[in-house]
Amino acid sequence: MIEEETGLDKNAVHRILTDHLHTQKICVKLVLKNLSVEQKANQLGICQDLLGRLKIEPHFLDKVITRDESWVFDYDPKTKRQSAEWHTISSPRLKKARMSRSRMKTMIIVFFDSHGIVHKEFVPPGQTVNHAFYKDVLERLRKRVQRVQTDIADNWAKKNIPILPHPPYSPDLAPCDLYLFSKLKSKLKGHHFGTMENIQKVVTDELHTLRENDFQYCYDQWKKCWNHCVTSQGSYFEGDNL
């Protein structure tokens, strides 16, 4: 189009765009949802409020428990990067057949804070994850917190539990998506486990390998994401060069 408008040949147009204007062609980034102006403003406002609170209470996240759930498969193929091998320049490029995840899978629900796993459980096969089921899960979490989290046990015993706001359609601000599940699943890719019991055992064992500094790193990244959200003015920022 530029060639037709200017009369310049294609090579000259390309040289101007790349060498002089320093532009490049970038692929479209897929996002969960095109956020409306109101949704961006809401996301921006929440992150600004959390950053403001962090200045007043630098350690308030120490008492915050977050949670998420995710499917874990009997077989999840390795990524192309995980399948990479060392070869000489003259070696032919590796080829790998496209493979799909297995149908056997289990859903895990994980609650954790900046010190470690607080509570986890696997959803029974065939169980619908609805409000009634989650109410029971939260009750089991509450009893667990009363036993192991003495500094916040009284509030949880009285069901006086403050909620930290989280904007909808915002996986780039979710701690589990930021760190926990990606780290967990990367170690499971490329393995066949055979049975539901084996999947759950391996997942449990992997969670036990995580240390407190792993969770502190996750929470540090969470704080950085609030800044990224402010920089992007409430837009999705995952994958952007911020």
What does this structure look like?
The chain has 242 residues and is mostly helical. The chain folds into 2 domains: 1-30, no CATH class; 32-231, Ribonuclease H-like superfamily/Ribonuclease H (Nucleotidyltransferase, domain 5, 2-Layer Sandwich), CATH 3.30.420. It has helices at residues 2-6, 10-20, 37-56, 131-148, 153-157, 175-188, 196-209, 212-231; strands spanning 66-73, 105-112, 117-122. A 3-stranded antiparallel sheet has the order 1-2-3. Strand 2 (105-112) and strand 3 (117-122) form a beta hairpin. The longest helix is centred in the first third of the chain and has 20 residues, at 37-56. The protein starts with a helix and ends in an 11-residue tail after the last helix.
Taken from the alpha-carbon principal axes, the silhouette is globular
* Distance between the amino and carboxyl termini: 31 Å
CATH hierarchy class name of the largest domain: Alpha Beta
**Poorly predicted residue ranges:** none
Radius of gyration: 23 Å
Classification by helices and strands: mainly alpha
CATH superfamily of the largest domain: Ribonuclease H-like superfamily/Ribonuclease H
Helix content: 40-55%
CATH structural fold name of the largest domain: Nucleotidyltransferase, domain 5
Number of domains: 2
- Could you tell me the mean pLDDT? 87
Major sheet: order of its strands?
1-2-3
Discrete helix count? 8
CATH architecture of the largest domain: 2-Layer Sandwich
Largest sheet geometry: 3 strands, antiparallel
Number of strands: 3
